[in-house]
Amino acid sequence: MEKLLVFISLIYQANALVRPDGVGRLPALGWSSWNAYECDINASVILSAAEQVVELGLKDLSYEYINIDDCWSVKTHRDPTTNRMIPDPERFPGGIAGVASQIHDLGLKVGIYSSAGETTCAGYPASLGYEDIDAETFAEWGIDYLKYDDCGVPSTWADPYTSCIPDTANNAGPFPNGTCPNLANPAPKGYNWDSSPSATRFRRMRDALEAQNQDRVILYSLCNWGNAAVNTWAADVGNSWRVSGDISPGRGEVGAERVRIATWERIAEIANEMSFLVRDYAGFWGWPDADMLEVGNGEGDMTVAENRAHFALWAGMRSPLLIGTRLETIKEEHLAILKNPTLLTFHQDPHTNRPAYPYKWGHNADYTFDAAHPAEYWSGPSAALDGTLVLMLNSENVTSTRTAVWGEVPELRDAQRGHEEGYAFEVVDGWTGEEFGCVEGGLEVELEAHDMAVLVVGGAC
Ligand SMILES: *[C@@H]1O[C@H](CO)[C@@H](O)[C@H](O)[C@H]1NC(C)=O
Ligand SMILES: *[C@@H]1O[C@H](CO)[C@@H](O)[C@H](O)[C@H]1NC(C)=O
Ligand SMILES: *[C@@H]1O[C@H](CO)[C@@H](O)[C@H](O)[C@H]1NC(C)=O
Questions:
Q1: Kind and range of the H or E element at 281?
Q2: pTM of the model
Q3: How far apart are CA 218 and CA 134, in angstroms?
Q4: Engineering a disulfide at 235: which of 60, 138, 286, 297 sits with its beta carbon 3.0 to 4.6 angstroms away?
Q5: Any idea where the domains of the chain sit in the sequence?
Q6: Which helix or strand (DSSP H or E) is residue 105 part of?
Q7: Which fold has domain 358-460?
C-alpha cells in the first residue's frame, strides 16, 4: 500500500513543473503594471509600486512579485552585437538590473514580460527564436518571474486548428467535455495539442528558463489566453497559465478622465469559465490564471461589492493574485479587500493541494454554463484555516439571500452523516472576522447585488 502511494505521487510530480526553492508551487501574489499603467511605465512607477507594497502592509501579507509588463525595452531593435533586448534608456536609466536590485533591497521579487512571438502585444521585440539568450539575460538582471504572452506569432508557427475557450455566451460550452458548438476550424478527435506549435513555442522558453535554474529560478507564467487547449498540457510547461482573454478591454474615457474599464460582466464570465476548470487542472506547481486583478479599477463601473466578489472568487480559485491598480491613490475599502487575511491564507495554504470549487450552482441548475450567472456556492478544505472555506455569490443584480446548508457542502457532509438534525459548526465571517458561534444546520446571509459571502466553517460543536 505504501509503495503504491509513493508511485502515485511520483507520477503526479512528473506532470507538474516542480522548480527549485518552491518557486511556483503556490499561486503568485504581487503587483503588475499593466492594468494600472499599460505602456506608461518607467523605473519610478515600478519602484513606487514596490515601495507602496511595503508601506501599505501588503508585503507582510506575502505579496512579493513586482511585475514589469509590456513596453520596457527599446522598441525598434535588439543589441546588434549581443542580440539582447535593450532596456529603454529613458524609462529605465539604470537598466532593468538597476530596478531589480532596488526591488530586491526592499525584500521583494521582480517580474518581466515577453512574448512567444516576434513582437510583444505592444510591438516590442519578443523572444521566439531568442529564448536562450533572453532567459540568460533575465537571469543575469535578477528577474524572478516571466509573464510570457502570445502576440507576434508568425504564420509559420500558427496552430492548424482552433480550440475551445468557453468564456462567453458566444463560445458557450458545454464544458468540460470540450465541445464549443460555435467553434470554427475545430481539431479532429484525438488531435494532440501537446505537440501543437503553441505548446512547442511555450515549452522552448520553459527549457530556456530551466537551464538558468542554477543561477536564478524564474517563475514561468504562460499567457496564451486559453488557446491551444492550454489546460491540457500546461502543467509541466508553466507554473500558471491564463485560461481566457484579458479581464478588460483596456481604458476608456469617463468624463474628462482616462480610466480603466473593468466590469462585473467580464468578472462573471471568467468565473463561470473557471468554475468548470479548477477541479481538474489546479494544484501545486500549476495554476489556471483568471488574469490580473481589477480591484480598485473601473471607476464608476464596479461597486465595492463587485470588487469584493472578484477578489473572493480569484482567491478561492487560487488564481495568481496580481494587483493591477495604482497603489498611491487606492481607496481604503479596496485596500481592505486586497488585505483580507482569510482569503489570503486560503490562497497561500502550503498544505492543501486544491482550490475551492462549486458544490452547487444556485441561480441555475448544477453545471449550467451561464456567463452572467456563474456557480454561486463554492467550498474548499483548508489546513491553513483549520476548516472549510465556503463562498456564496449573489449573481443577481438585486439584494438577495443565500444559504449555506452544511449537509450540501462536501467537506462538511461526512461529519454530519448519521445526525438527523444535521451537525453544528463553529463559523466565522471571513470578511469581518465576526464569530457567529456554533451554528446548526446552515447559515443564511443577505447579500447585495454581486456580493460574495466568505465563511470559515471550523470544528463541529
Ligand atoms: C514615469 O511615468 C509616470 C507615469 O506615466 C509619469 O507620471 C512620470 O513623469 C514618469 N517619470 C519619469 C522620470 O519619466
Ligand atoms: C457534453 O456535456 C453536455 C452537458 O453535460 C452534454 O449535454 C453533451 O451531450 C456532451 N457532449 C458530448 C459531445 O459529449
Ligand atoms: C437585472 O437582471 C434582470 C434579470 O436578469 C434583467 O432583466 C435586468 O435588465 C437587470 N437590470 C440591470 C440594471 O442590469
A1: helix 278-281
A2: 0.94
A3: 12
A4: 286
A5: 20-355, 358-460
A6: helix 95-105
A7: Immunoglobulin-like (2.60.40)
The question of whether 150 is a catalytic residue gets the answer: no
Query: Hunting for cell 493541494 — which residue is that?
Result: 353
* The amino acid at 412: L
By DSSP bridging, strand 65-67 and strand 424-429 are: unpaired
Instruction: Give me ligand 2 centre to Cα 379, in Å.
Output: 25
The ligand that comes nearest to the alpha carbon of residue 368 is 2
- Which one, of 148, 166, 141, lies nearest residue 69 by Cα? 148
SS3 3: helix
Q: Look up residue 144 and give its three cell numbers.
A: 524572478
Strands (E), 219-348: 219-222, 240-242, 250-254, 257-261, 287-289, 321-323
Instruction: Tell me which fold the domain 20-355 belongs to.
Output: TIM Barrel (3.20.20)
Ligand nearest to the Cα of 367, by number: 2
Instruction: Evaluate: CB of 177 within 6 angstroms of ligand 2.
Output: yes
In this structure, the strands spanning 29-32 and 321-323 are parallel
CA end-to-end span of the chain, whole Å?
35
